[in-house]
Design a protein that fits this description.
439 residues; 7-stranded mixed sheet; hydrolase; endonuclease; nuclease; Endonuclease/exonuclease/phosphatase
């Protein structure tokens, strides 16, 4: 006699349906919550000129730079004013900001968790290349719209390994005060519209510690020297260069003055002299002090004092102010796009504040028209991010648009903040136009 077919009880049926529903729910992606950020317009420059050249001789580029604040460096005690420090809170803000400005080229610093960022960039039509120092958890990234550019060459500059002197012991030749594991990253981007047009794009993140002025001067000089060499080796001396990144010095710092050949002030010399030290990372015989070591990372040494270091000696190879002035004067002149263009935008945008208004820089000094702030936290508010341009002799450039900086009041009491910015730095951007000189 055949057995009666087995029927589930109502309780078992209900349990089965509940399990199916739970499985389906787990498979569904969470709904995408729209991210709202304070709108930031592209401000027109008042000196835009009508083109009289063939468009084949012009290159117009929107470039953005941004220190994204690596998640591995986030600590609650460093950002007490923030309301969004978890990765799940910051990621939507970071990704939205990256895509909202429509940049052709992005220069990004403190980039970690690259495996999560690349799909976002690639899905928006970008190609991206990342570089970091060995064993460092975050690095620099250059992204570009693949419909506009192709990358032909790249170079990573390891500041710790570069030399200032041709002879002598290893440490003397390098002339370094601290092994920082910072890098510069350069890429040659050729325009897809013409093989003869393109740009050398450089991003960097210089040493963060406020007291190590000498080391940032050394790294800045090496960066420009090595990029010029890289450009020449690839036969591109008639192409412009963009240097964009977190340089970690304000416009009233001696390094900014060295870059733009402003007279060196007495306070700048004093700050520079106090940074002429050699850290334990260079000389292992230096006694370790009982305060936390920076280990070269931007999360350490909250007291901002030099620790585990001794005064520099002639055998260490560090360069004095006069020697550095000579080296910088032998470099081609750079242009800071905000310092050149932001002043021209103030007539139409009087609400925008500048570094010179906050610090009352004399009118004859460079840096007055840099943004009021490019980094804003509870403990630290400064202007340390820049976009510089280096033009060949036969190429004219123009800053045609600038991305409006955030107001200081909007960033208080400190970034990162929901609805404002997912990093402790503000993204900066410029539209640049290059024309080949017909003379």
């Amino acid at each position: 006699m055949p057995k009666e077919p087995y029927h589930l009880t109502p309780e078992q049926l209900a349990l089965s349906e509940a399990r199916k529903a739970q499985k389906l729910h787990a498979q569904k992606k969470p709904p995408q919550v729209p991210v709202t950020l304070i709108p930031r317009i592209w401000m027109e420059s008042s000196l835009t000129k009508a083109s009289q050249n063939d468009e084949n001789d012009e290159l117009r580029v929107k470039v953005m730079t941004w220190n994204m604040l690596a998640q591995c460096l986030v600590r609650r005690d460093l950002f007490p004013g923030s309301d969004c420090l978890k990765a799940s809170q910051r990621d939507p803000l970071l990704h939205a900001e990256l895509l909202m400005h429509g940049a052709d080229i992005m220069c990004l610093q403190e980039v970690d968790r690259v495996e999560l960022l690349l799909p976002v960039l690639e899905g928006a039509g970008y190609r991206a290349h990342h570089a970091a120092a060995p064993s460092k958890k975050h690095g620099c990234l250059i992204a570009y719209k693949h419909e506009c550019f192709t990358k032909t060459f790249e170079k990573v500059i390891y500041y710790d390994n570069e030399q200032l002197h041709a002879d002598g012991e290893d440490n003397y030749r390098r002339g370094s005060s601290f092994r920082t594991r910072n890098i510069g990253f350069a890429a040659v981007l050729r325009s897809t519209s013409s093989d003869s047009l393109g740009v050398v794009v450089v991003t960097t993140h210089l040493f963060w510690h406020p007291r190590y002025t000498y080391e940032r001067a050394r790294q800045t000089y090496i960066l420009i020297r090595e990029v010029l060499k890289f450009r020449s080796e690839n036969g591109l001396n008639d192409w412009p260069c963009i240097f964009a990144g977190d340089f970690n010095f304000p416009p009233n710092d001696i390094v900014y003055s060295l870059l733009f050949r402003d007279p060196i002030e007495s306070q700048q010399k004093e700050d520079f002299s106090s940074s002429m030290v050699v850290h334990l990372s260079i000389d292992p015989t230096v006694p370790r002090t009982l305060q936390p070591s920076t280990d070269g990372e931007e999360g350490g040494d909250p007291d901002r004092i030099i620790t585990s270091a001794r005064p520099a000696l002639p055998k260490d190879g560090l360069l004095g102010v006069g020697e550095l002035e000579g080296l910088f004067k032998n470099l081609p002149r750079l242009c800071s796009v905000y310092d050149e263009g932001l002043g021209r935008c103030l007539t139409n945008h009087p609400e925008v504040k500048t570094f010179g208004q906050r610090k009352e820089l004399p009118s004859e000094r460079h840096g007055r028209h840099e943004p009021e702030y490019s980094s804003y936290t509870h403990y630290w508010q400064s202007t340390i991010d820049y976009i510089y341009v280096l033009n060949p002799a036969d190429v004219d450039s123009e800053v045609t648009k600038l991305l409006m900086p955030h107001k200081g009041a909007d960033m208080a009491p400190g970034l990162p903040r929901s609805g404002i910015c997912g990093s402790d730095h503000v993204a900066l951007g410029a539209e640049l136009l290059w024309r080949r000189n017909k003379r």
